[in-house]
Amino acid sequence: MKIASVLAVTSMFLVVSAMPYQAEAQKKDNVLTQKEKNAGWVLLFDGTSTDGWHSFNKTSLGSAWEADNGTLHLTKHEGESAGGDATTAGEYGDFDLKLDWKISQNGNSGVLFLVQEGPEHERSYHTGPEMQVLDNNGHPDAKIIKHRAGDLYDLITSKPETVKPAGEWNSIEIKLQKGKLELWQNGVKVVSTTLWDANWDALVAGSKFKNMPGFAKSKKGHISLQDHGNEVWYKNIKIRKL
What we know:
Layout: H1 2-25, H2 34-38, E1 42-43, E2 53-55, E3 65-68, E4 71-74, E5 86-88, E6 95-103, E7 108-115, E8 130-134, E9 170-177, E10 180-185, E11 188-194, H3 198-205, E12 222-225, E13 232-241
Antiparallel strand pairs: 1-13, 2-5, 3-4, 4-13, 5-12, 6-9, 6-13, 7-8, 7-12, 9-10, 10-11
């Protein structure tokens, strides 16, 4: 009995002493660790407010975008007046961007970068390359090569395909440094290319962007989360300048 009591007490001590470590190991959404802060990461969304975001070419964010249960949520809506592409206040050149996304069934969205605003630019995708966000199992765009989730939209197909189904969270990373672009999806590098060289010019010339003179011309721009008319959620949006 005494041995059993000692073992029970010892087991209880080990469980209790492990609890703080386990709690610390569980990373909260929309919170930077001290290590991330030291490395220069900053949050673009704190989980509770839409501060720092506005709809593309507007001064405020459309009402369809809500801070909802720790996510930046594009709700169901009619027309662009309530939505629009959620766009950062800041502009970024060489950067490392990470975020998590979840798409509705049959949904479509995207993460754009190097986006330019102004009356001469009607849409964010007229200037900003896009990492596609898509329900590959339901949206018709998935039938088109280079239009699937993780693709550098209409330019380069992502390989391997690592996307999770609609309703599940995906983690992505977009890294641009000295013209070298990498796209990561769920921990796997799926696209690697170089901007602004002869090969890049050929890719653009063979895409839907060939008649958009401002496409990917600027080496600094906004980040935009696309309103494609479908419900989508984003969280853990963070960036660091390189």
